[in-house]
Amino acid sequence: MRILQITCLFFISITFALNAQEVNYNLTDFYKYNLELNEKVNQHFDALSDHQKVAQLIMPAIGPYGQTEATIDQLVKTDKIGGLLLLNGTKTEFTNWVKKYNEWNTASGSLPFLYSADAEASLVNRKIKNSTPVSKANTLKTKAEVKKVANIISNDLKEIGINYNFAPVVDMSPNKTVGWRSFGHEPDSVIPWSDAFIQETQKHNIIATAKHFPGHGYVEGDTHKKLVYIKGEMKEIKNYPPLIANGVMSVMIAHIAVENDTKFNTNGMPASISREIVTDLLRDSLNFRGLIVTDAMNMLGVSTIEGSNIKAIEAGVDILLMPLNAAKAHQEILEKYRADENFKATVDQSCKRIIRAKLCTEGALFPQ
Question: Residue span of the signal peptide, if any (predicted)?
């Protein structure tokens, strides 16, 4: 009997040791062909219910400009979200939320979250109170300063547990809404400095995001308040190919309409729900294979459009950021998922892309 107990303990120890030695990936693996990683993505995907697969695409916000903690608690307990934007709070508050939801997801065997923040150089100290002070983007003078700022921000994010930064702004500076948040109005600074910020961020295993596609710098108006238009040539598209070629992991789509462009006209709809912009232009023409996230879906540039959550996913986005009602968005998407094979295939593809990103940022937190 004693020998049998020792033998069982031995095999249990071996099992735990093998689990402990399981390969952890990082962001450099995301775009590489890796058979083992592909299999792990499929393994985790196959273990999810329809309900849980849909949840991966939904990212509400918590904080004064997002949902209450009680609302987020309920969404987490019912497996209706796959990530969380930490919006306007203190560093300590955010750290505690990440710890809490990590523990909940681990205990329930749920997939880990992507935790995001608007940690741009120009916004981070307002969005994350008590974060390390940095200079605003429009005051930086050299690429070395940009890298230093990105390093400081990334270290703060790592301490909190944030693995997804909605930065940098790669728009040109003329528009007053985004201008002070960008690196200037000349491509020879905006492109290399944006790339420097991205590379420094992703060295820390934090997803960086180029925004606001297809370009907010030359439009008039504020998408928080209304739908705005690019009238003719999309001049800022040229900012994206070098960043895509160098491995940026995420692109954020703006609620900006495009008119007078015969190939990519959005017909009076925002780019965030336009298949011409999200799939035909960004995915196919620019060959972007990373995560596509909407700008906040509660902004007036899109929130008044009926069925906007479904339309955004049909357009090809992977992550719905801040839908007006996350539980309702989940229900709508799940119903469509179960009724429409083409829509199901689109959601499944996004879900697998999100799982792959999660494995490359927080693989150690995955259920065994």
Answer: 1-20
How far apart, in whole angstroms, are the C-alpha atoms of residue 173 and residue 138? Answer: 9
List, as own/partner pairs, every contact residues 95-100 make where C-beta atoms lie below 8 angstroms and the sequence separation is at least 24, other chains included.
95/159, 95/160, 95/161, 97/62, 97/69, 98/160, 98/161, 98/162, 99/161
Q: What percent of the chain is modeled with pLDDT above 70? A: 90
Q: For residue 197, which of 128, 124, 147, 261 has the smallest C-alpha distance?
A: 147
pLDDT at 76: 98
What are the tens digits of pLDDT across the range 27-38? 999 999 999 999
Map residue 195 onto helix, strand or coil: helix
Q: Is the pLDDT assigned to residue 182 strictly greater than 90?
A: no
| DSSP state for residue 299 in the 8-state scheme | S
Cβ–Cβ < 8 Å for 154, 208 = no
User: Token match 């930065």: residue?
Assistant: 167
The neighbouring-strand residues paired with 62 are 67, 86
Residue partners of 146: CB distance under 8 A and separation at least 6? 121, 140, 183, 193, 196, 197, 200
Average pLDDT rounded to a whole number, residues 337-353: 98
Question: Which residues make Cβ contacts (< 8 Å) with residue 163, sequence separation at least 6?
Answer: 114, 115, 157, 205, 206, 207, 361, 362
Measure Cα distances from 133 to 87, 122, 127, 136, 223 in Å: 17, 10, 12, 9, 28
- pLDDT tens digits for range 230-284: 988 899 999 999 999 999 999 999 999 999 877 899 999 999 999 999 999 999 9
DSSP 308-365: HHHHHHHHT-SBEES-S-HHHHHHHHHHHHHH-HHHHHHHHHHHHHHHHHHHHHHGGG
Q: pTM of this prediction?
A: 0.92
pLDDT class of 22 with cuts at 50, 70, 90 = low
**Residue type at 46 in one-letter notation:** D
How is residue 347 written in tokens? 């959601």
Domain parsing of the chain, residue ranges: 27-362
Q: Please, which pLDDT band fits residue 12 given cuts at 50, 70 and 90?
A: very low
Please answer whether residues 365 and 105 qualify as being in contact, where contact means their C-beta atoms are separated by less than 8 angstroms.
yes
Domain 27-362 has CATH 3.20.20.300: yes
Two tokens, residue 24: 């952890």
Two tokens at 269?
């709809």
Cβ atoms of 239 and 187 within 8 Å: the answer is yes
